[in-house]
Amino acid sequence: MKIAIITTGDEILQGIIADTNSAWLSEKCNALGHQVVWHSSVDDEAQNIVSALEIAAQKADTVFVSGGLGPTADDITLEVAAKSFGLEMIKDEQILATICERFERRNLTMTSSNEKQAYLPIGAKELPNTIGTAPGVEVVHEGTCYFFLPGVPNELCQIFNDSIAAKLQAAENVVEQVLLCFGKPEAEIDTMIQGVDLCDCRLSFRAKSPEVRLKLVARGENAQQSVGQAEKNLCAALGNIIYGAGESDIFAVVGNMLKEKNLKLAVAE
């Protein structure tokens, strides 16, 4: 499955808040065996949201959209999407009752603005939000599945884990391996592995001072075998430049070596 992710909000483009939602969703979708092919962030302008939705639908089977589901005037994402899909927004009395009950339980006064969070496009499905007032929304339009989620990170995570992860499920067997390199810059490492047989694995570089990480990814029935052979080929080409594998780091590796040899390390600043 190909996945696109859109985050909305003036505050993201102005640098006021960091877009952590895209990174989190990408990690989760990748772990389920799906391929995230496109990210975009747009402001709270209707036409920009529509344009992003159109581009996303051309690139992906499933589109995640976070932000713009709140009660204020600039929270227009779902209304704009419904209009672009040609769908009428209708009030869901059950959702409204849930929102009212949540305010009552907290001894807070619900305003008329919150009522708009109970409106869904016709045919859409509610994805319950157990933390905040804005439910997630699932809409299928012209063969593309859209998940509209709140921009608040903990609400987005809760809705994904409770209502979406099971829908996506594992698409196919995906195997990953990270090789940890030290002592050479990534450009030199890239030169050293030119011509190495990667056995149909995808290889990506990540420079994370003071090391370089090589990530192998393979999909399908023979993924484990492909990654294993590609790892052997890279190790043969790079030798002791590769000091470890997995999600460790050079500090942990050196620390474990010291422990194994019963050695102590003293440092002074």
Brief write-up:
With 269 residues, the protein is of the alpha/beta class. It has helices spanning 10-13, 20-31, 46-59, 77-85, 93-105, 153-168, 186-192, 223-238, 250-260, and strands at residues 2-8, 35-42, 62-66, 89-91, 119-121, 125-127, 136-141, 144-149, 174-181, 202-208, 211-219, 242-245. The protein is 38% helix and 26% strand.
List the defining traits of the structure above:
269 residues, six-stranded mixed β-sheet, 38% helix
Verbal overview:
By secondary structure, the protein is an alpha/beta fold. It is built from nine helices and twelve strands. The chain has helices at about 10-15, 20-30, 45-60, 75-85, 95-105, 155-170, 185-190, 225-240, 250-260; strands spanning about 1-10, 35-40, 60-65, 90, 120, 125, 135-140, 145-150, 175-180, 200-210, 210-220, 240-245. The strands form three sheets. Strands 2-1-3-8-7-6 form a six-stranded mixed beta sheet, with helices on both faces. Strands 10-11-9-12 form a four-stranded antiparallel beta sheet, with helices on one face. Strands 4-5 form a two-stranded antiparallel ribbon. A hairpin with a 2-residue loop joins β10 and β11 (about 210-220). The longest helix is centred in the middle third of the chain and has 16 residues, at about 155-170. The radius of gyration is 23 Å and the shape is elongated. It starts with a strand and ends in a 9-residue tail after the last helix.
